[in-house]
Structure formats: C-alpha cells, structure tokens
Design a protein that fits this description.
This protein has 216 residues and is an alpha/beta fold. The chain is built from 7 helices and 8 strands, in the order H-E-E-E-H-H-H-E-H-E-H-E-E-H-E. The chain is 32% helix and 21% strand. The chain has a 5-stranded parallel β-sheet with strand order 6-5-4-7-8, sandwiched between helices. The longest helix has 11 residues.
Length: 216
C-alpha cells in the first residue's frame, strides 16, 4: 500500500483518539491548523508545544523507523552504494549534504580540545556524522532506532552503533541530535534520557525545525 494512503487511513482511524500534549500531558490544547482533514496541528496552552494529531505511539515509531521512514535528500535514510560510500569517505564528506564541518565548528567554540570530548550522536542514521566526529578525535557513542541503518554504519564505517538506549554509557560531555527531536513520541523522555547520560555540566544540542507557519 502507498505510504501516504496508509498514513491517511491510520489518521482517519485514530481521529477521535485523545488530544493530549505529548510533552506535558495537558488536555488544554487548541487546533491551529489542519491537513487532509484528518491530520491536525494542536498547540498546548500549558507548555506551548505544537504537535500533530493523531500522535504516533512508541510502538508505531519502533516499527516505522526500521524501513518505512524515507527522506528525499539522498543520504539521510538512503544507504549509499559501495562506490558512493568510497567517494564520501575519501573526501571526508566535504562535498556531501552531511558535511559535519559546521557542527564541529560549533563544538570547537565550546570545547578547547575535541580529543577530550565524549559525545552522543542521538539518531545518527547510518553514522555519517559519527564517522566525521571520530575523525576529529571526539569519543562518540552512536544511537539509531533503525537497526538496518545501524548495521550498515557499523559494518561499512567501522562504527559501533547502538539501537538500545540501555547500551549507552553515562558521563558524556555532549548530547547531540540533528532533526530527531521532532520525530520522537515523547520529547520529555528524550530530554530525561539526555540528562541520564550527560555530566552535570554537559551540553544538550538539538538541531530541529523552527515551527514557522510556512513549514507546518
């Protein structure tokens, strides 16, 4: 079945499910937008989070992000051919959309020596950023919910990508995610997990959409 049609059917089936903020649990929510009738955007009047309804359950996320989730940028979810991968690795991803240079520049402005930094790359896909972080001396733990992508990065890039949170070791300086927080079923659970893994003076850095009306 077409993934968009499947999504529409699932949204219609769960249209009358509870309208509860996925962050704070408040029922005081206001509809601010709608798409294809069944999919709505609500804003929580308690914590101001904007969230899509019907919301995705943790069980659905576990299944969906194994193989069904696809990004059309040619690299985030698409695993490259051996030839493409070699070209990326040989150039250290410099001409790739996933060049980690800007991210590393930010980290260098925070830490005086990247060789002493312990970081977590949370939601790392097949590890293209983790690979670049390691090349710069960062001690990286990589996490990815999609086991096929985690296996690809571990096998092809020599990484050790984990798919279970209990495999991540606390005591890190930096918890980093790139366009992950908008996909998780519970933002507060992600932040609590980051707190578990970070040192008291550690940094939580999350790249995410800005929630502007143009991109609703």
């Amino acid at each position: 079945m077409n993934s968009k049609l499947e999504y529409l059917i699932r949204s219609a089936y769960r249209y009358f499910s509870s309208k509860t903020c996925t962050n704070c649990g408040s029922h005081d929510v206001v509809q601010i937008d709608r798409k294809y009738f069944f999919t709505r955007l609500f804003e929580c009047q308690n914590c101001q989070l904007q969230f899509r309804h019907p919301v995705d359950t943790k069980a659905f996320n576990e299944k969906f992000y194994q193989d069904d989730y696809v990004q059309d940028d040619g690299i985030t979810t698409d695993m490259p051919s051996p030839e493409q991968l070699k070209q990326m690795v040989d150039s250290n991803f410099v001409n790739s959309p996933k060049n980690a240079g800007p991210v590393l520049a930010l980290w260098k402005s925070i830490f005086s020596n990247l060789n002493l930094v312990k970081a977590i790359d949370y939601g790392c896909s097949w590890g293209y950023m983790s690979y670049q972080f390691l090349k710069q001396g960062v001690q990286v733990q990589s996490f990815e919910i999609s086991k096929p992508r985690a296996a690809f990065g571990s096998q092809q890039l020599g990484l050790s990508i984990k798919s279970e949170l209990n495999e991540l070791v606390p005591g890190t300086d930096l918890f980093y995610s790139s366009h992950v927080i908008e996909h998780v079923p519970s933002i507060i659970e992600m932040i609590q997990e980051a707190k578990r893994l970070l040192k008291l003076d550690g940094y939580f850095v999350a790249e995410c959409p800005n929630g502007s009306a143009a991109f609703r």
